[in-house]
Amino acid sequence: MNKSVTSQGYRFKKHKGVLKVAKEDWQGFSTVLEFTEDDLKMMLTRLQHNPGGSWPRRIKKLRKRLGFTQKEFARVMQVSFATVNRWERGHCKPLRDRMARLREIETWRK
Questions:
Q1: Residues 40 and 63 in one domain
Q2: Domain residue limits at 35
Q3: What is this structure's pTM?
């Protein structure tokens, strides 16, 4: 892939085994990241073994410590059951206001 591919504002280009990712900000400055094939393999392996980072484990551990079902925890967090389920499976992360609520709830004792 020697030609440039653009997706969601990012420009991808592979040259001599190195993937270059560039994004221009509102001032026209480019941020360029370079990844070798080994870098990409390592990142992919980490993602496969840890799909959502520590958030899924942390949320599930907190919910279980407090003795809540996902449905009850969703009510406490003021989100849907499906959202809690997605968080725990690592499909998405809580938004900033929900992260603040999680930190507040972490101080609760059961």
A1: no
A2: 5-49
A3: 0.52
Instruction: Give which of 26, 99, 4, 12 is closest to 59, Cα–Cα.
Output: 99
The rounded distance, in Å, linking the Cα atoms of 70 and 60 is: 9
Per residue, what are the HEC states of 48-77? HHCCCCCHHHHHHHHHHHCCCCHHHHHHHH
Amino acid in position 20: K
For residue 81, give the amino acid letter.
F
Count: domains in the chain: 2
Q: Which residue type is seen at 4?
A: S
pLDDT in tens, 97-106: 998 899 899 8
Residue type, 72: E
SS3 of 36, please?
Answer: strand
